[in-house]
Amino acid sequence: MYESLTKKQKLLKESIINFAKNELNTNLSYNDDKAIFARENWNKCAQDIEILPLLCSEKYGGFEESLQNTLLTLEALSYACRDSGLVHAIVTQLCCIVQLNLFADDKLKSRYLPSLIKGETIAAQAITEPDSGSDVPSMKTSATINGSYYLINGSKTFISNGPLSDIVIVYAGSQNKKSSFAKVSTFLLEKTYKGFKSGQPLDKMGLRTMHNGELFFDNCKVPKQNLIGAEGQGMMIFNEMMEWERALMGAVHIGTLSRIAEKCIQYANTRKQFGKPIGKFQSISNKIAEMIVNLELGRSFLYRIAKLKDNNMRATKETSILKLFVSESLKSACLEAIQIHGGYGYMKDYELEMELRNSVASTIYSGTSEMQKNLIAYLAGVK
Questions:
Q1: Catalytic residue (choose from 75, 214, 243, 245)
Q2: Which residues pair with 169 in a beta bridge?
Q3: Model-level pTM?
Q4: At what angle do helices 84-103 and 67-80 cross, to 10 degrees?
């Protein structure tokens, strides 16, 4: 794929890498240890290299960029920016922007998209609940009409950007709907709305610089005009957005995997044991070879998906395959990287233990690996 990049795309990739390496990696160990979200680096990504406007319509200040170029940008960012929590927070914001851009009416777009693409406001999408993660239609959060408002009641958990969010895209069920698929609707609410409360950041194993938290809705009044799409279209919106999210996160995983492989190659070429570089030992070189194979296969599949989505085609099976493959490849590569580096890999200074902690979540969010396998089998014809 890289051989076919245009001059403009190559310059884009190089500029993102140079900027991220020089500007986005300060105080990383401290921020990870203290679970600090680097808002100044968020602002740099939004305003200096303008990542957030990529997938937004020009009408609202965006660039209407192709998914291919957006994935190229995120891959470069994730490769060069070692703050994976920051990159994940950016992807969450991009997903919210795409969701509004595709499904909201002009009033909602005009009101919220300009500040979102500038990074002035932070968005979260609230789907997961304490008793329903993968089983989205069984969510308990409800929305009932009360005059010119919807009253939303319930709670969400593990919500990326939740504690920082200025606006939340929340999925809630209408209990009067007979079909579980048609009962879910999607709403936009502001943090100032009465009846809404955001919890403190959760203490996580990895991705500590991105804040996840609980959200609570107690007769939260949401204006009827803040319904995204039509009532009962929530599952349709959710399914479409999962394709975008898995593609965007796939680019992030590919970028991180590329950095891990590169670090292992450098170490294997310089670390000597028994009078020769450890890369000469087949047990080491085979581990690196597997990383490279997974990297190239994942990258090839990622840009195949970009072509589908850029041509307004569905990619449900493809994005599930991508999500399963690259997340498991990343987790495996991080574990093998520690093995290659031996005792040094176990030390915090090498950052590989942080990479491993971050990678574990990749097989859980956006649909667990187990759910991806079920979905892939179903879409392949297993009933």
A1: 245
A2: 125, 188
A3: 0.96
A4: 160
